[in-house]
Design a protein that fits this description.
Layout lengths: L4 E5 L8 E7 L3 E5 L4 E15 L2 E6 L3 E4 L5 E5 L5 E8 L1 H10 L8 E2 L3 E2 L2 H15 L4 H18 L1 E2 L12 H12 L7 H8 L3 H12 L3 H18 L4 H7 L5 H12 L23
Antiparallel strand pairs: 1-2, 2-8, 3-7, 4-5, 4-6, 4-7, 4-8, 6-10, 9-11
Helix pairs in contact: 1-3, 2-3, 4-5, 4-6, 4-7
Length: about 280
């Protein structure tokens, strides 16, 4: 893993947003999704990832964009690995910024996994450098809105990102409702399938086909997102682990490493610093 470097940065003017500044050499992110948007610019190398049923390759200077809830992976394909600035953007922040820019109200769904747009890439790089340099709130917010202006005016698609629950098979919608309502539940697959009136095999196959993850992975994903949100609020890590269904803090940390490439402490607390949280790097 020589050369691996990951640091997370934030700014109080952009609540909930996290900038991941990373260089990965031997990294594999398994299938997962995010509650918000993942918007990155590749600075060197190639970011390979599976998304929307196919393998994608983002080269240096291009953007890699994943909408909320979309399942994807992440891999290295060259010995040199890849480096990027990647923004984890809450849906509310992007919607608020759209309104600030006076752009038309619409579903903010990006239609392409990999985007070649030099102006957008430059805008993201400028924002990332400003956050790393702990620039003033005025400068950081201006750079963020400039990035939003380019992205939202050029790359938003009118097509909905995911099929609504109403279009899912009834048993899949029911299983998701049960899992969402009780993330800490310890139901077996057989018990969940019985609630949905299907066989365990049929539930796994149908759920995976429509949600993108099997039920256990979906539940873990939701627990991780809930844990990250609580970390961002500054809660104690051990308490968060217990409250979100992990055996202990070490168990939670291992899953954070798999999901985001960093331990949970990198996200805590995102809003407590005057301008930008401390620059802690993991190699």
């Amino acid at each position: 893993m020589s050369g691996r470097r990951v640091a997370v940065h934030a700014h109080p003017q952009l609540p909930g947003l996290a900038l991941v500044d990373a260089h990965f050499v031997e990294q594999h992110f398994p299938k997962h999704s995010h509650d918000g948007y993942s918007i990155g610019v590749v600075r060197s190398g190639v970011n390979a990832f599976w998304h929307r049923g196919g393998q994608q390759h983002a080269i240096a200077g291009s953007l890699c964009i994943v909408n909320p809830g979309e399942v994807h992976t992440g891999d290295t394909v060259t010995p040199q690995g890849w480096s990027y600035f990647n923004l984890l953007v809450p849906e509310l922040l992007l919607q608020t910024s759209r309104a600030t820019l006076d752009l038309p109200a619409q579903t903010l769904h990006f239609g392409q996994s990999v985007v070649a747009d030099a102006q957008a890439a430059t805008a993201l790089l400028v924002l990332g450098q400003a956050m790393l340099a702990k620039d003033s709130p005025l400068a950081v917010e201006q750079h963020w809105l400039e990035l939003c202006g380019v992205l939202l005016s050029r790359h938003v698609s009118e097509r909905a990102a995911l099929a609504p629950v109403s279009r899912m098979p009834r048993q899949v919608a029911r299983a998701r409702e049960v899992l969402d309502a009780d993330l800490l539940g310890q139901r077996s697959l057989s018990e969940l399938a019985a609630l949905c009136h299907v066989s365990p095999f049929h539930l796994v196959r149908s759920f995976s086909a429509h949600v993108g993850l099997p039920p256990h992975a979906y539940q873990l994903q939701k627990r991780l997102e809930q844990a990250k949100a609580r970390v961002q609020q500054g809660e104690a890590l051990a308490s968060i682990a217990a409250a979100t269904g992990f055996a202990d803090q070490a168990h939670m940390s291992r899953h954070f490493q798999r999901q985001w490439g960093v331990p949970p402490g990198q996200f805590a607390p995102l809003r407590s610093q005057p301008q930008n949280r401390k620059n802690v790097q993991y190699r």
